[in-house]
Design goal:
alpha/beta; 6-stranded parallel sheet; 5 helices; binds flavin mononucleotide
């Protein structure tokens, strides 16, 4: 299984999680974490699983991820297995907003097969650091989602 993790980051916290996920997934196949700034588009790749993550900013998505998602032609990601995550302040998403929910919705509208609900990971302040245990939680989250994929494949 080939996984592509595309992340946006301002202070490095979302990148740390993307790298932790890639490390965990690399035991199950090829996994690459890449900055959204380093790719020309989201739809020209040969991954089996696409994971998209970004910080929550102003209750929503920063522009790098939004522009790349907006640039995907309708149907191009049809049936692509996908997951969405964000980093944000702890607490209710009704108060903080959640980029992951918006990414999840956009990916679903593009035809992706979302393997799990959107997930948030927490920072202690605007620049971080990540709250204790969040990298481990990110590793566990992708592996759990991958487990679902494997069960789906066997079905
Ligand atoms: C301009 C700006 C707006 C932000 N707005 C929110 C917000 O609405 N809700 C929230 O939970 N966090 C907000 N944050 C905090 C970010 O989520 C935090 O900086 C991010 O998770 C850190 O991830 P990064 O190191 O990958 O950039 C904001 C941060 C910035 C810089």
């Amino acid at each position: 299984m080939k996984t592509l993790i595309v992340y946006e980051t301002e202070y490095g916290n979302t990148e740390k999680l993307a790298r932790a996920m890639a490390e965990a997934l690399s035991e199950h196949g090829e996994a690459r974490a890449t900055s959204v700034a380093g790719i020309s588009s989201l739809d020209h790749h040969d991954a089996d699983l696409l994971i998209v993550g970004s910080p929550t900013q102003r209750h929503g998505l920063p522009s790098g991820i939004r522009d790349k998602l907006d640039g995907v032609p309708k149907g191009r990601l049809k049936n692509m297995a996908a997951l969405a995550f964000d980093t944000r302040y702890p607490g209710s998403r009704w108060i903080t907003g959640s980029a992951a929910r918006k990414i999840h919705r956009i990916l679903r509208d593009l035809g992706c097969r979302l393997l799990a609900p959107p997930e948030s990971f927490f920072v202690a302040g605007e620049q971080g650091p990540l709250e204790p245990g969040e990298e481990d939680r990110a590793r566990a989250w992708v592996l759990r989602s991958l487990g679902r994929t494997q069960r789906e494949t066997l079905r």
